[in-house]
Amino acid sequence: MRTRGFRWLPFLLLCLSVQVAMAQSSGVEYPYPVHYLNLTIESKPVRMAYMDVKPAQPNGKTVLLLHGKNFNGYYWKTVIQWLNANGYRSIVPDQVGWGKSSHPDIHYSFHRLAANTKKLLDTLGLTTVSVLAHSMGGMLGTRFALMYPETVEKLVLENPIGLEDYKTFVPYQTIEQQFQKEKAATPDSYRQYQKSYYPVWKPDYEDLVRVQASDLKAPDFNAIAWANAVTYQMIYEQPVCYEFGLLKPPTLLIIGQEDRTVVGKALLTKTAQAQHGLYPELGKQTTRQLKTGKLVELPGVGHIPHIQEPRQFLKALGDFLR
């Protein structure tokens, strides 16, 4: 009996460490246990949160899911369920600066985020993955695939931002200006922005507003707001749209045809707004740049297909992964 008790002790300690870590971070309860990778960035100790969901009947394949700027790993829950049911292991990080990860004051770059993500995969002993990347995650997924082409078996870009170079037409704002804007955020301002993601707003979408607004009550909200401001600058200053032709993995673009997202859109005139963020054209234009590319267009769908139309999205994803 004593021996059996000691066998359970490491498992109980692991569960306790996960629970304590979750209690110390965002108040949002994630759909699967959250683990942490310890990193040192610019001499600062940093923790990178992630979910690692293993299927009961594995097919030997792993999918890395990369979230957008106004999101974190939480919003992948339906996709994780589908991947799990179909035998795929899911690795779902909160990038450093988001969600349950640390929000350090560092220089943010897509290269750094990609290197953090590669470190996570190396720690887990994963040498190859398929990458599913949404919104800002599409820019990160592109950079990751460019830096580590041997690691990426397939790349899926779901309504990625960065299909055009925002700094060529969006007026510049300083980090300080963006920080003040982030500090002034409210649940309603988040709701109004998220309404632009969908052709028709539904009560079901309020859950993602709740998750984003949970940051407003965080003890380190100023650090979160600063990270949000700095990562806005990262998106603005570090385009990937000139490098799609260099991608080596087979790449699928899933593009909701009603999406009109532009980072910094509120700074544009109405005329300029009408000329940019045209995802039906941007999807085709990007696909033409790819060496091995496929485009799936979803009529009537906005910026987050996996939330608005999960069945259509998952069919396209499944067909490509198989």
Topology diagram in text:
Layout: H1 2-23, E1 35-41, E2 44-53, E3 62-66, H2 77-85, E4 89-93, H3 110-123, E5 129-134, H4 136-147, E6 152-158, H5 175-183, H6 187-195, H7 206-213, H8 221-237, E7 251-256, H9 270-273, H10 279-289, E8 293-298, H11 305-308, H12 310-321
Parallel strand pairs: 3-4, 3-5, 5-6, 6-7, 7-8
Antiparallel strand pairs: 1-2, 2-4
Keywords: Hydrolase, Signal
Pfam family, one: Abhydrolase_1
GO molecular function, one term: hydrolase activity
Describe this structure in words.
The chain is α/β, with parallel strands linked by helices. It has one domain: Alpha/Beta hydrolase fold, catalytic domain (Rossmann fold). About 40% of the residues lie in helices and about 15% in strands. It has twelve helices and eight strands. It has an eight-stranded mixed β-sheet, with helices on both faces. Strand 5, helix 4 and strand 6 (about 150-160) form a beta-alpha-beta unit. Helix 3 packs across helix 4 and helix 5 packs across helix 8. The chain is globular and about 50 Å long. The relative contact order is 0.13.
